[in-house]
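Kindly review both lines to help learners:
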Amino acid sequence: MGILRTTLAVTGYSTLAATASFYAITRHCKILPVSPSDYLLNHTLYARYNPNNAPVTQDVCVRKVPLKKIKAELLEEGAEGKLVEAFCAGVWGGLGYAYQRRYLDKKYRGPETATQLWDRKALKIDTYPVGTQITDHFEVVAKNSNSIIVRCGDSPRKPDVRESDGLFEMVVDVKKDEGVVEFGLKSVFYNGLAVPENVVNGRGVGKEPMSPWIQWLHAQYDKVLMETALRGSVMR
């Protein structure tokens, strides 16, 4: 998981350090565990890229926003899928991802990655169909009207099972009865080449791919991605 740890350590810490009012800005975000029964952990993509059912590091960042604060054009009839597309565009084109985008740009942008999304303007307007590659570190692998899943952890130019790997989902749930939209950033990281020490209730157990410190740092970074995505592309 070297590339993933390095990217998180460099970009996550720098983002937090640059956000003086971090706790005030992200106070509405909650970090929760991903349920073992969650569909992402039972998805064919998860089985394909983690064939040995190796242990995972996982979490989900959740944020609820009142319907009245969401841009009207994203909720109108016939706009199915537009809300999650705007959320996704906000994640990658937002200020929260700016430092990581520049970091990856310097390391990996070149002729062999020219067809990928790199520039903030392009990231903010793309609709993220399956197959879209983002800054040589993410690739859209599944999409529906309320969810976009990207594969992460290493270059999408490495399509096979790999050591540094994971799935990252942007999901929206319009709860009209509660008058809110619930947004989620769900992460599941694993070493696709590892073999678990044991299997309990159908899940591999053993050493997780991230240390507690890196996992905590990733969770805080998710909060920044969440807030900058919503404020930049989704909220009025």
